[in-house]
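<context>
A single protein, sequence plus fold
<entry> Chain with its tokenised backbone below
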Amino acid sequence: MKGTRPLNNAEIQAVANSFEGTFAIRNRALFMIGVSIGGRIDELLSLKVNDVWQNGKPVPDVLYDKAIVKGGEVARAVPLNADGRQAVEEIIAWHIEKFGAFGEVNPDAPLFVSRVKNTDGTPKRMTTQAGSDAIMAAFAKAGLNGKLGTHSMRKSFAQRLYSQTNDIFVVQEMLGHKNVATTQKYLGVNYAEVREALELMSVLIAGTAPRQATPVHRATDSDLIAELAKRGYDVTTTTKGHA
């Protein structure tokens, strides 16, 4: 969804604690893996068990094959952090409990399965609408507001990775963007910093005095684009739609 906002760490924790029902483990894993590896909803739902679980443990890196990424982009591998590994372990244990035989799980099964089964009795892949409904229900349960959607998981990943690395090219590669100008749009506003700055501007609350915010250097869009052009990157306008 165009214009959706990222989540901060406290909001991510609140959402993670808000999943309920028979498929809570599956839905929580979808969310936590989403904010941990920055996939689009369709990319996440295209993952199979073998993409995240091999030799009895989570994989160190999740590979998005070119067959499942947005049109024209290249395959990419994203390291799986501790949150992602825990989510993988939980959903694999859930798979074994529901579908496993002799404590094993089918490596070719969809990671995020539907309530509906194929004619041969095997589970279908969770639909995009079902995935979106599950995520949006958790947002509401957590009491979040603002413009939210499944793309908030991807933007949360991008914003948090940039905050840790301060390297837009790392974020570009992990998101799979062909054009770094698309990545820059993801990072235009750090909402956590904006909230902090606005709190520092408060002057009317009794017992408080205006404080001076620590200046944060932010290059302008034109400065950034000029620097990228010097480095030989394509900074032309990208196509419309989700990135």
About this structure: The beta strands are 53-54, 57-58, 61-64, 76-79, 113-117, 123-125. DSSP finds eleven helices and six strands in the chain. The chain has a mean pLDDT of 84.
